[in-house]
Design brief:
By secondary structure, this protein is mostly helical. It has helices spanning about 15-25, 40-45, 50-60, 80-100, 105-125, 130-145, 150-170, 175-180, 185-195, 195-220; strands at about 35, 65-70, 70-75.
Length: about 220
C-alpha cells in the first residue's frame, strides 16, 4: 500500500516563527506588556504574515500572549495569582505522576533523572539560566512521561512554556539558580528509597518552595 502522507523533512515556517517568538519571550528580548506587531516580525524573519499569525494564535492558547480587541497583541503579564495557580496545578499533576511512576520505577529510569539533575547543576554553576531552566523542565517532564499517563502529560505540557517564561523573566541570580537546583535532591532521594508517599511529599514541597521563591522575586521586581 502506497503511503498516504509525505514525509516532512523541513521545519514549517509556522514552527520556525513559533520557536523564535517563544525564545524571545523566554530570554527577555520580548518583555511583559510589549506589543507584538505581525508586520514587523514578518519583515525581521523574512516570511509572510500568515505563519506569524498562526504562531501567535498558538502562543495565545498557551497563555504567553494576549490579544486585546482593537488594540493589538501583547506579551502576557503574570501576577502573583497566575504563578500561584500555575504551581498549585503543577503540584496536583506531578504528585499523581510521581505516584504512578513509583509503581514502575527501575534503575535505568532513576539514572535518567540523575543525568538531567547533573546537567541542571552544571548549568547553574556556569550561570547559564536558559540551560538550567530547560534541564529543570526536562526533569519534571520526564517524571510525567515515566508515569505513562498520556492525558496527564498532555495537560502538563500546556503549562511548561508558561513556567519557563515566568522563571526566565524573574532575574537570573546565581544564588536563585542554585536554590532551585538544590530543591530537586530530596525528590530524587525519595524516588531511590522506593517510598511513594515520601516521593509525593518531596515533589509537593519542592514546588511549594519554588512558588515561594518566585513570588518573592516577583515582588522584588515590581
Amino acid at each position: 500500500m502506497s503511503p498516504i502522507f509525505k514525509k516532512q523533512e523541513r521545519i514549517t515556517l509556522k514552527t520556525q516563527a513559533l520557536n523564535e517568538i517563544k525564545r524571545a519571550i523566554q530570554n527577555g528580548k520580548l518583555r511583559a506588556g510589549d506589543r507584538i506587531v505581525e508586520t514587523k516580525l514578518a519583515e525581521e524573519m523574512g516570511m509572510s504574515k500568515f505563519p506569524i499569525r498562526e504562531a501567535i494564535r498558538y502562543l495565545e492558547k498557551e497563555g504567553l500572549v494576549v490579544s486585546v480587541p482593537f488594540k493589538g497583541t501583547y506579551v502576557s503579564r503574570f501576577d502573583e495569582r497566575d504563578v500561584e495557580e500555575l504551581y498549585t496545578l503543577r503540584s496536583a499533576l506531578e504528585e499523581l505522576a510521581i505516584r504512578l511512576f513509583m509503581g514502575r520505577v527501575n534503575e535505568s529510569k532513576v539514572e535518567k533523572l540523575e543525568t538531567i539533575l547533573r546537567q541542571m547543576q552544571k548549568a547553574a554553576k556556569e550561570q547559564k539560566l536558559d540551560k538550567m531552566v530547560s534541564a529543570d523542565m526536562q526533569f519534571h517532564r520526564t517524571i510525567c512521561e515515566l508515569s505513562e499517563h498520556r492525558k496527564l502529560l498532555g495537560i502538563w505540557l500546556t503549562l511548561e512554556n508558561q513556567t519557563k517564561s515566568f522563571i526566565s523573566r524573574e532575574g537570573d541570580s546565581y544564588e536563585r539558580q542554585n536554590k532551585l537546583v538544590e530543591t530537586h535532591h530530596p525528590i530524587l532521594k525519595a524516588i531511590k528509597s522506593g517510598d511513594s508517599q515520601l516521593a509525593e511529599k518531596s515533589i509537593r514541597n519542592h514546588l511549594i518552595q519554588a512558588l515561594v521563591l518566585l513570588k518573592n522575586l516577583y515582588k522584588k521586581n515590581l
